[in-house]
């Protein structure tokens, strides 16, 4: 099982390598009747493109999406939506050197161990380019969620030592700054910091965060299919993510129960939590509060310094990576996190439709008549 | 989908509530020919039982496992292994009070939101008792892994502010101390600390860690079924876990690429990493090094202080939880983490069998003849 | 993958062998709020018990079901329902002889090929007793369908050369006659015929049919998850079934399009088909008409005549099967077919809930508020 | 769940409609190291193209396949193989008339019931063109099976009343005759018969058969994932198939156990069956003998006679279908059956790799070292 399918009822299957002819995704299980056009998807793909600033790779990726199936007269038909993005700017020559050795921090070695050989051009299937399929599919999930009053929003929390100040959270800044930080001052500091990093021929890690607002309570299942468990898988499946947390995350390990428990209170006739240490999930099920997910991303493994490694033929050697590489992964990964979160939440919402007998009865009515 | 099934080819389905007649698990896809008896499983169940020390609930849970199917003349037959643990010590009276209100930090509210009502006795399906099925199944996975030369070992890293000193890692201590710490001094400090916590009618969180040693490279799949993604899901599905990390985890966000990259080196004719910041996984696939997973656990939500909450009928109220509750969850969750890790690794190993044409050819031979 | 799980959202996992301690099933994904007690399930289990007549095995199987989890105060909670049936009347001695050779028409040989050895007592997991779990789970599915106005009803069409006359279809007869035929005259003829068969120390095959009435249109998915494809799998998974058909079945191969096409007509403001050659399914999706499924069952392989076979150690030998065996499988398999059909239809109905955007909008409302 | 994915470890996802831009399939889980080029796949696609003879539609479909990913330097890499076939000859004008009414025998009505509307051009996703994705994927499965010494071969058994004489089975004829019959005389008779059918502005059904030779024993799982159950689903999922049978099929219902049981005998030191009424499967598991599957196909629903139907707006009306339609579906469906059978068998073989502890031990060796 090569593992390129995600989701149970809203199910996506991605394909494509860094330097193949094209990349794409098949979205199966999208409800019929959603207005959908290429522009809806392009908007998200554009957010993962390398920007014009100094902090991202100077590669140009057009990443133009084409809808090949599943949409008729501007609406989804309920059948598979096939989306394709042609590769246009890949220069295979850049990578020929690394065909026969293992770059530290990359998947070269493990692919060889697993499959016996690998497509060495630009990381092949383990390249960050693999995420274009996720983002194209996630754009559709986000559009559906928006129609249901739910917004998903990811941004950069920190780059190396530079942290965004969340007290003046600025959503627009997150969409506009080169670092995707919701704080223009921190963004400027991070850009300057990244200049130093690049000058050192080095790279650096960072942290990103995703909020889901408007999600009703009751989403997610107990035991193995907990909403937080599936979010953890979704986010950890993004290359370079090494830690995932919900709500207060790793800090809970030092907290007391009396501070960590969120009390309930009635507000406008509704039970609400007075705080949100839980990050919107209790027992694996959404509690109606904002979902808070955080991901910690390792430094870009491709650095321009000389590194020690071994060759395929078993000899110690030095390697000096060339090519075009971002000094930090986070800003471009933010939209991928947003999309993986949206896909996970939507699938859980669809699975929740059959949670109660009264839902089945309301839907299929008496005498087997479908009432909706 | 109630979500009580875990795994693709080594697949378990757990069932049972805190105060029902029994709890259990069906293990489907276990290879035929494994020697198995109840004692193999009991050993693991005993590790999650409340101990005799002051830090765990004084409840007595016999947790005697019975093998109901799938084993014949002492060996597994390849058909489903049904394991049952009868509930013996549950006192429903303790919980009647909380039937109509929502305990902070518990899943009472979210179960009501999802299902319309809930089995309020002891948390029902969201109780920690649900994990007996996971541990019973995990014991089998661990036995198989051991036969393949792979060991899985979890322990407590910290309880509140008390951290184990990993420099003198003492595996035996982890099995014997009441805190499951691999450091007898830290254990003593943690036990003293927990006395204070209990005296404050409070609880505290902690951190646990799991190592997988001996795992060959090549296990796990690229993209969505990455080994680390599945480990994150497995571990986050344990109630009370709020953060999961691999290798250096959340600290990578402040690291430089030059420190985070693990160089390769030849050692005894084999490529090995000289460090293990990656935690044994590159690009979602095991690299032959030790797998390192960490989980951060929130404080036990059941504390004996008065807390603010609301009732099912929508009134603000105070609640004072009675009953028997551990001041910290970690020591008893350690074996659950070990089992979830084992189940995840074994399933990935089984799925890896068909990764290469040469494996199929070696197995089924020429002319369709099975050679093994 | 031992393959003991069936269904995607209404998902069952069966376990247990002919001569083990017990058999059972875990039903996961049952909606919350369904009234359920053991009697609901016992009713169906009793229908697959050997009767008092001469045509069934004189074995006595109490088959008393116990609900171990998932039901609280008389209603399902949405968590796994574990059902167990203790084995009481198994006499292992009867089977010791066949431990080391392969009975013709049985799975002895193939289990040995697959697993290296087998539980030889009474067929182990390949015994007809395996179906008690399916029937216990199916009883729940039938109860849910009934609440939605849908009935599932299976019966015997023929036993050897004796066919039921469908013109005077008598549903009560199907429940009361020893052959499960909906025709008391044919039943009498079949009973007499079976006496001859038994006298010849032989067995015979037959045909069973299942109708689903009241199912709304729109259930089932195009392409691989067609409703008829899933029914074919469900029914073919019943041991001894060698052919499955929908509507006119194998006879369509000789029909012309002009006779086989069902015309549409308006009736009471609704489009209906004037005939039902299609058996209620077009393009894999229910059309609102009665679903018609038929299964052809091979003769019981256990016959009391001397047969040629080989031993495990590779020698030709003769075998004369002893024990207690029905001369025809059909009458007891009818309720299994009914249950597998119900499970398949219910799962498809649940998956259909997310087929349209307007359903999601109606359910989750605007602003993410759950309206049901 | 739109249901466009098939298989567990060798998993395909098809997409595309009759008159969309393109159709295709993503093959995930294909083992690494298989030599693969477009010609391997084109060979199979060409077999489902309408021929030059009078019996098939005069439409011209180039059906040129393009490999978009998953193959590097002529070999599969273990990552998803994306295959695309551009639509070139679709004339949407032909179908505009049927946009607002329901063709008898087609899925127009059921798609509208399910999704609220449909892509009415040429049947959209319910068109026979959907099968190009299945055939492209199946070609890869067939190539792998061939390397393991296993051949899959389907052909036409009968068209209307004309049956192939199986005594002089001629495999080459099956590949060359316009009817795909393995009997040139019957082919000639069938072609003449089809002329009459076409002259009557009618269509006719038929029967096709598929053999799997060289499959080792032990493939398939007990209970729900029986090999025959999965074959039944695979074959019934082909549009227009109304009955599926294994071995003697529906005729077993009239047979006695003494004739239906296949005796075992030692031959060249191996246990073999002396007959094959079982069709190569016992208890859901292959027995080493030839697998025999049969499918009965309904007459093409598109006939040129006037038919009664209703419009979307609920009025009775007459319809006269235009366009280009085969008078019989079977000859072009034969390769689809072959491919669905190959996909099913290969997936079962892959899942079988972990059936025994000794296989795991042989593969992963002692000390966790991978030995293959």
TrEMBL record, chains A, B, C, D:
It is an enzyme of class 4 (lyase). Its cofactor is FMNH2. Gene3D superfamilies: Chorismate synthase AroC. Its EC number is 4.2.3.5. Keywords: Amino-acid biosynthesis, Aromatic amino acid biosynthesis, FAD, Flavoprotein, FMN, Lyase, NADP. This reaction introduces a second double bond into the aromatic ring system. Reduced FMN (FMNH(2)). Pathway: Metabolic intermediate biosynthesis; chorismate biosynthesis; chorismate from D-erythrose 4-phosphate and phosphoenolpyruvate: step 7/7. It catalyses: 5-O-(1-carboxyvinyl)-3-phosphoshikimate = chorismate + phosphate. Belongs to the chorismate synthase family. Homotetramer. This is Chorismate synthase. InterPro entries: Chorismate_synth, Chorismate_synth_AroC_sf, Chorismate_synthase_CS. GO terms for biological process: amino acid biosynthetic process; aromatic amino acid family biosynthetic process; chorismate biosynthetic process. GO terms for cellular component: cytosol. Transmembrane segments: none annotated. NADP(+) binds at residue 48. GO terms for molecular function: chorismate synthase activity; FMN binding. FMN binds at residues 125-127, 283, 298-302, 324. It comes from Acetatifactor muris.
């Amino acid at each position: 099982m090569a593992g390129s399918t995600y989701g149970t009822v809203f199910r996506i299957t991605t394909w494509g390598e860094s330097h193949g002819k094209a990349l794409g995704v098949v979205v199966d299980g999208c409800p019929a009747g959603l207005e959908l056009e290429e522009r809806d998807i392009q908007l998200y793909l554009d957010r993962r493109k390398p920007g014009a600033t100094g902090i991202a790779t100077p590669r140009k990726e057009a990443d133009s999406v084409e809808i090949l199936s599943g949409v008729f007269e501007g609406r989804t038909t309920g059948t598979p939506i096939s989306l394709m993005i042609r590769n246009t700017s890949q220069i295979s020559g850049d990578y020929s050197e690394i065909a026969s050795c293992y770059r530290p921090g990359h998947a070269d070695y493990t692919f060889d161990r697993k499959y016996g050989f690998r497509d060495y051009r630009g990381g092949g299937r383990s390249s960050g380019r693999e995420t274009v399929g996720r983002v194209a599919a996630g754009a559709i999930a986000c559009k559906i969620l928006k129609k249901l009053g739910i917004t998903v929003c990811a941004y950069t929390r920190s780059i190396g030592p530079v942290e965004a100040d969340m007290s003046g959270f600025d959503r627009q800044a997150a969409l506009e700054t080169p670092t995707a930080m919701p704080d223009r001052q921190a963004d400027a500091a991070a850009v300057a910091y990244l200049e130093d990093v690049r000058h050192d021929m080095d790279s650096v890690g960072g942290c990103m965060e995703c909020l889901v607002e408007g999600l009703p309570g009751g989403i997610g299942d107990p035991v193995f299919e907990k909403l937080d468990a599936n979010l953890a898988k979704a986010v950890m499946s993004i290359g370079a993510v090494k830690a995932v947390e919900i709500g207060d995350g790793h800090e809970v390990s030092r907290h007391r129960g009396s501070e960590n428990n969120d009390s309930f209170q009635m507000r406008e006739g509704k039970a609400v939590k007075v705080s949100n240490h839980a990050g919107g999930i209790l027992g694996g099920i959404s509690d109606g509060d904002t979902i808070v997910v955080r991901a910690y991303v390792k430094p870009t493994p491709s650095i321009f310094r000389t590194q020690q490694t071994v060759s395929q033929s078993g000899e110690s050697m030095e390697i000096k990576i060339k090519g075009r590489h971002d000094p930090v992964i986070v800003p471009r990964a933010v939209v991928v996190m947003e999309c993986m979160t949206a896909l996970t939440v939507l699938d859980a919402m669809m699975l929740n439709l059959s949670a109660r007998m009264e839902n089945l009865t309301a839907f299929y009515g008496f005498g087997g008549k479908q009432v909706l």
